[in-house]
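Reopening: structure tokens for the copper (II) ion complex, inputs below.
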Amino acid sequence: MAGVGLIALAAPVAASAATATVVVGGGDMKAGIMLTANYPAVTTIHQGDKVRFVFAGFHTVTFLGKGAKLPSLVTLLGPVPAANDAAGQPFWWAGRRGVGLDPRGLIPSGGTAVRRGRTVNTGFPHTPKPVTLSFPETGTFVFRCVQHPLMRGVIRVVPKEAAITPLNAQMGAGMARQRADIVAAKKKVARATAMLARKGATVDVGYGDRTFDAESMLPRTVTVGAGTTVTFRFPDAQETHTVTFGPDALIDGFVKAFEAAGPGVSAPPEVLYASDAPGAMPVVYTGTNHGNGFLNSGIAGAAPAPSPKTWRVTFTTPGSYTYVCIIHGRMMSGTIVVTA
Ligand SMILES: [Cu+2]
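Re-run output (same inputs, fresh job):
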């Protein structure tokens, strides 16, 4: 047995290129927890090795060249056309600018070899397949995410003869860290939700810090008496959301249109902008606004969202009103129950 060990030791170090794995994001979809970190956060490889980036969530791996700015995921487009609501009244936002996806953030660029001072962007694939990049030069290479500006990861590339922690041990530590981050995120969300429930008449539309986004309404159900004003806050530093009331068919149509938007195609202006002109705050909701019960905060949260980070709505009519974030779909919905 000792002989086998000696043969293994005598084998040349890093005879062939190894491939490390980095999990980009992750989380607990059911709980609406999306991690905005890389696992492991720092991976050390030998010069000439490769890294396979496995996407768990909507992220990019973007290495920025000298002086390059992180590309934006969205960009301003030309003016949106006028439109009427279901009651035949014109919406206020005609002529405002549309917002679409920015091909500079979206489309892969820079090839698959990461070198000092050069930009390599995996882009934002619609079906996120793993991407393998090679590292022909030594150095410390920081990567970021176009969608989550606070998200960072590091690949340290050391000379072939340097001793490193085995790749599977690095990966194991990364996965343990990921599990711990999910547990910690759930605790933070539970704590914030309990605090908001005690406060009453306040909803946090999404929640998170540097390490995660909670794509949920905190709390999911709020019960208030008729005439109460509910404050919707958009505290998320990395994500944008909407609060959108209306009939199911209308909501589902907006969600579909939003998913279908590509480079140069604006998000539907009915979603992008608030349903009611800025300045009308609080907005009064009767359940029949705009002819069909439509009421929308507009996109709010991280820049360049067009709506403010606080939206106030007075509920006048008893009933149960479900609302959805059009960007994240039905998984991110909430209900306001208005009692007499
Ligand atoms: Cu959302």
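The pocket of copper (II) ion is lined by residues 206, 215, 241, 325, 327-328, 332 (CB under 6 Å). Residues 167-199 form the longest helix (33 residues). Marking as resolved unless the reporter disagrees.
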